[in-house]
Amino acid sequence: MKIGIKLEKSGVDGFVSLRYSIAKSNFPMTSKTSQPNFNISYFGSCSFSVPILEDISIHQGQLLGDIAKKQFTKLSSKHKEFLNIEPEFWNELKKDSNVWSHKVLQKPINLQVVVTKSASTNRGKAFTNPIQEYCERKAISWLSPNNLKDEFAIVKKFLKNTDIAIVASYGQIIPSIALALSKYGYLNWHPSKLPEYRGPSPVQAAISNGDKVTALSWIALVPQMDAGDIYFQDEVRIDKDDTFSDIIKKMALLGSQTWAMIAAIKVLEEQNSQEDSLLTTFAPRRQDFEKATITSKINKDKKFLDPEKFDAHTIYNHYRAFIEFPGSWLKIKYFGGYIKIIQILGVFDEEQFKNICKESISLNHIKDLFIIKNKTQRLFIKCKHGYLELSKICTPEGKGLNISGYNFNDDAN
Question: Which CATH superfamily is domain 2-291 in?
Answer without folding.
Answer: Formyl transferase, N-terminal domain (3.40.50.170)
